[in-house]
UniProtKB/TrEMBL annotation:
Pfam family, one: BPD_transp_1
Protein name: Phosphonate ABC transporter permease
Topology with respect to the bilayer: Multi-pass membrane protein
CDD domains, per database record: TM_PBP2 (cd06261)
Keywords from the named record: Cell membrane, Membrane, Transmembrane, Transmembrane helix, Transport
Principal place of residence: membrane
Transmembrane domains' residue ranges: 44-63, 148-172, 192-222, 257-277, 284-300, 312-329
Superkingdom of origin organism: Archaea
PANTHER family per UniProt: ABC TRANSPORT SYSTEM PERMEASE PROTEIN P69, PHOSPHONATES TRANSPORT SYSTEM PERMEASE PROTEIN
Disordered: region residues: 1-23
Family named by the database record: Belongs to the binding-protein-dependent transport system permease family.
GO cellular component, as recorded: plasma membrane
MF annotations from Gene Ontology: ABC-type phosphonate transporter activity
Amino acid sequence: MTTDTTDSDGTSESGAVGVGDGADVPDRIAEQFENIKRTRRRRAFGWLGLAAFLAFATLQAFAATELLNPDARLETFVESLTGFFPITDYFGVIPFLDIGQYTSFIRQENLLYDPDIGGLLFQFPPNPTDIYAFFFQELGIFQIFGEAGITLAMGFVGTILGFPFALIFGTLGSERVTPFPFNFLFRGTMSFIRAIPAIIWTLIFIPFLGLGPASAAIAIAFDTIGNLGRLFVDELEEIEDGPIEAMRTTGASKPQIVFFGMLSQVRTGFIAWTLYIFEINVRAAVTVGVIGAGGLGYVLTSQQNLLRFTEMMATLLAIFLLIISVELFSQRLRSRLRSDDVEMSLWELITGFPRRMVNSAMK
């Protein structure tokens, strides 16, 4: 029996039609399910094709780097490790890593400490004449750290010299400060500087300043302009418009808006990025030292040329100690800038590292 209902406009609906609509629901669900399965199959084939392409590209890359060459000395890799890690038998039975050979070379070559400079400062009773000579005649704040101090000084000078130019180029490169296309002049300059690695900039400055720390420091400064300036540009693009509009309503000039409305918002970020670039510059100082610019990089390549792999490993250990010290120092300063972080002393930062690692792993 079929019941008819009449709408207000005079049209009638049959209950049989409703039954027919209900019968279409399973068909639509089945169709959607098939669409989902087809989509998943396409994605699976897509991922399979991507994996096959990456495998093929990896094979080609291995061939291009000659790692598939049968003449490659990969089979002697384990044997070569003994040159980097000297093993001595304890009591003639228990083998252990002879750290003494590392520390002996580090002391002999003054990689981390120069006793001639340090002797002016660390003596008892203190000699005011020698202390004055340490600070104002020998200028030994960096030289006291030996070859590591030269590497640190190159990175520090490069950061100090490059920062003001990075600030100028980064500020003027922002479209909020300089309208397009004029801001592209500063962006393009920074892009050109970034396109040339610091080690190439060092080779460029060698004819002018000679092969040494001076050319390396200027090269790192140029590298800082390109890298740090780009970070400044990105930071300025994310500032809030509220303070800027408020200053405009008060009739502030464009320089006042830039300095007090824009740069005031990114002051903390600029300092944090500068400290980060300083860490990178210290690593770059090691790299440019390899070509003869001085510091730990030069000692490293010298020992490598002499095939003294134990001394080379000792230099790598000194480089690690320098880099990790700079990172701890930089992290400490950046934590001071973040008001929401709990302040820790440098000693707590070092000694509490294993505990923080365990707490992080347990989360």
